[in-house]
Design brief:
Helix content: 55-70%
Distance between the termini: 28 Å
Shape: globular
Strand content: under 5%
Number of strands: 3
Number of helices: 9
Order of helices and strands: HEHHEEHHHHHH
Structural class: mainly alpha
Length: about 230
């Protein structure tokens, strides 16, 4: 889903139409997609012009991003884009497995016909985009990763926990930041993992689905670490 600025919204819900929230979404997007590099100093005066926001709004936004782990605050030195490391990525991947597998189990129990339709629609968009990439054609990176996000979100949306979905969205954004840094595609292997995960979810096979999800995340972790 896209926000009012045409950027990806990884919050899993419609954005609030406020300057503060729009600034937050743009900064978060630019950190995830590498426009703002790991370790870069975030100077309020520079950001004020770039994001058309007041210093007070930016300070509030950066504090919010700090609480989520996308920004680091150093006493007397200001704000910086959080650095990256193999240890951090390992922790993010394992936390994502913990939360997403639990949410998936809950969602498979609670999901109705509308949930199945949403999962099928999200999978179709992702699979079609992966087929384009497989055939060697150029695909918009943001569109591809948006469809990847929508598919994973559709699987767990019926967990009926706003708090869980919020935590998952933050972890997914952090995990994606590392994938964008290496910007490589795992090819047919990843495509088949998504296919198997989709089929297990539609069959309501929680045991198979959680195993496939764990394998999918761990394979992505291994791939990203190899290219870091």
């Amino acid at each position: 889903m896209r926000n009012t600025h045409g950027k990806l919204n990884f919050l899993g819900s419609a954005p609030h139409n406020t300057v503060a929230n729009a600034t937050y979404e743009r900064l978060r997007h630019d950190i995830i997609f590498g426009k703002l590099k790991p370790g870069a100093k975030l100077k309020l005066e520079t950001l004020k012009d770039e994001y058309a926001a007041s210093v007070s709004t930016l300070r509030e936004t950066l504090n919010r991003l700090t609480s989520e782990g996308f920004v680091s605050a150093a006493e007397q030195r200001g704000f910086f884009v959080s650095p990256v490391s193999a240890a951090d990525l390992n922790e993010i991947a394992n936390l994502r497995i913990l939360l997403e597998c639990y949410a998936l189990e809950e969602s498979l129990q609670n999901g109705d016909d509308d949930w199945e339709a949403d999962v099928a629609g999200a999978y179709h968009k992702l699979s079609s985009t992966e087929a384009v990439i497989k055939n060697g054609n150029d695909a918009d990176i943001e569109t591809w990763k948006e469809y990847d996000w929508q598919f994973h979100l559709s699987l767990i949306r019926a967990c009926n926990s706003t708090n869980l979905l919020g935590l998952h969205a933050t972890l997914f954004g952090k995990y994606l930041r590392y994938q964008i840094l290496v910007l490589t595609y795992r090819g047919e292997v990843a495509r088949q993992e998504h296919k198997a995960l989709f089929e297990a979810a539609i069959a309501r096979d929680a045991n198979a689905a959680t195993k496939l999800l764990t394998q999918h995340i761990m394979n992505g972790l291994t791939h990203t670490l190899e290219y870091m």
